[in-house]
């Protein structure tokens, strides 16, 4: 058995360094052996519980191995100092052997711990929490890109687990331990499931995430229904500047769409872009005959193969209800069967921004045997179909009121342009006002070309978070381009547009 030959071991700091090196090699642990200077530093910082005036013993061998393992997981020395005394020798030994077998122990203290205080403004802990969230967002995007082709699955022991995701789990685990909780971030599947809920929610259960000065409290990293990284996730992932924007999903989709429409030539390019974005917004669930008719009507038949391959999937049988596809009465997309069949007997709309997400109504039931049915891919539903609910509502009102309105002008300079370059409107539905502000502080995009620049915030977000707009304004830069934005709710923008024709006549 392991450790039998060292249970009675005793020695100096130099001997301990050599013994740790021997044990690491014997157990085949993937950690670097600590040098003599490191061992002495650990003793000074009380990581090694050497009784005064006595030599090191078996307990310190276990503590040294545990310290090296936890440091690799991203723990601070302070956190390790707090946790190690709570482990018995037997528990430490078991944890180390589990690591040696390539598994992932929880490093749960064997006694009930008192939560360590993390007061508001505690910057080291706050910095750790924010670093963990940035790494989590980056890791989730990388993991999503790996599983997207359908050839890989998420596996706890998989050596291809993105390093960002692994590092995020280590940091999250340390946050749990420092709050006196068990490590709830040891399982990648648990972490990914929790990412479908706001960081400040009870689902995560981290006090620091719900503190008033934690800026990502409202952020949701994975769409809860469509299971794809959210816009908040993309923005948070880019915060460190070490994560290439070309890896962000929305940017990649935009690039693919622009590359396709550019093949049609300069005059048709922008028109084709608008037609395709409008297709995804109005007809995310569409029969093949209607799809082909739409492509013909908008001169998009040269792109037919690419559009179907890149942006649509066949409606799978598992999403049918009584063998029929249920179309949402509010946004027109495919409603999905829901585990709560009593509350959502006819299915539920997966689009977070749609009224049908909470109060579903079926507009029609389509038979896939009468026509081939296509549904926009989950990433299209998340990044374009959902936001298009507000974008199309604003555009339709503008046109109904006789305004010169253009949808996605010049391949998406903004969402709606009014009277040429007089007014530009962008509709946003980020769950977190802070991540939206971070994006706008980096660039306000094509709105820069418009004289009046309006940002329209989803009404439901404001209902859920009445301080959304004030938080957004307080986080925006007070100078340069972000300071020029007029921030309003979508309903306020619509009322503003309704009054415009009359204002122009006076």
UniProtKB/TrEMBL annotation:
REase associating with pPIWI RE domain mapped to chain residues: 390-489
Recorded superkingdom: Bacteria
Pfam families assigned: pPIWI_RE_REase (PF18154)
Protein name per its UniProtKB record: REase associating with pPIWI RE domain-containing protein
Natural source organism: Nostoc flagelliforme FACHB-838
């Amino acid at each position: 058995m392991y450790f039998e030959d060292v249970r009675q071991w005793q020695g100096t700091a130099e001997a301990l360094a050599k013994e740790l090196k021997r044990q690491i090699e014997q157990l085949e642990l993937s950690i670097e052996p600590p040098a003599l200077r490191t061992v002495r530093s650990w003793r000074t910082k009380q990581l090694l519980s050497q009784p005064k005036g006595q030599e090191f013993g078996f307990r310190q061998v276990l503590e040294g191995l545990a310290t090296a393992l936890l440091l690799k997981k991203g723990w601070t020395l302070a956190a390790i100092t707090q946790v190690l005394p709570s482990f018995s020798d037997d528990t430490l030994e078991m944890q180390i052997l589990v690591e040696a077998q390539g598994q992932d122990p929880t490093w749960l203290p064997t006694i009930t711990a008192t939560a360590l205080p993390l007061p508001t403004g505690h910057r080291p802990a706050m910095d750790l929490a924010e670093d963990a969230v940035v790494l989590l967002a980056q890791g989730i995007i990388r993991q999503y890109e790996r599983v997207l082709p359908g050839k890989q699955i998420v596996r706890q022991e998989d050596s291809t687990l993105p390093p960002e995701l692994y590092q995020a789990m280590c940091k999250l685990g340390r946050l749990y331990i420092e709050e006196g909780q068990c490590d709830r971030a040891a399982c990648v599947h648990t972490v990914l499931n929790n990412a479908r809920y706001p960081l400040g929610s009870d689902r995560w259960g981290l006090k620091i995430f719900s503190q008033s000065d934690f800026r990502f409290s409202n952020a949701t990293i994975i769409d809860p229904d469509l299971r794809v990284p959210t816009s908040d996730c993309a923005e948070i992932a880019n915060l460190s500047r070490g994560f290439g924007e070309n890896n962000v999903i929305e940017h990649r989709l935009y690039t693919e769409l622009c590359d396709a429409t550019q093949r049609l030539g300069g005059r048709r390019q922008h028109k084709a872009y608008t037609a395709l974005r409008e297709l995804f917004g109005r007809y995310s669930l569409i029969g093949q005959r209607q799809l082909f008719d739409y492509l013909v009507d908008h001169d998009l038949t040269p792109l037919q193969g690419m559009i179907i391959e890149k942006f649509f999937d066949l409606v799978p049988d598992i999403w049918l209800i009584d063998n029929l596809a249920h179309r949402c009465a509010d946004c027109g997309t495919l409603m999905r069967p829901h585990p709560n069949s009593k509350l959502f007997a006819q299915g539920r709309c997966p689009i977070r921004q749609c009224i049908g997400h909470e109060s579903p109504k079926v507009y029609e039931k389509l038979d896939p045997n009468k026509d081939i049915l296509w549904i926009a891919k989950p990433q299209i539903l998340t990044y374009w179909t959902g936001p298009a609910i507000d974008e199309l509502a604003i555009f339709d009102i503008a046109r109904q009121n006789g305004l010169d309105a253009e949808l996605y002008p010049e391949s998406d300079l903004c969402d709606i342009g009014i009277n040429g370059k007089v007014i530009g409107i962008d509709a946003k539905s980020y769950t977190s006002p802070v991540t939206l502000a971070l994006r706008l502080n980096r660039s306000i995009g094509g709105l820069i070309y418009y004289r009046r620049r309006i940002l329209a915030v989803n009404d439901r977000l404001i209902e859920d978070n009445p301080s959304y707009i004030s938080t957004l304004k307080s986080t925006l830069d007070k100078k340069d381009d972000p300071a020029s934005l007029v921030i309003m709710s979508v309903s306020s923008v619509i009322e503003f547009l309704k009054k415009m024709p009359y204002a122009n006549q006076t």
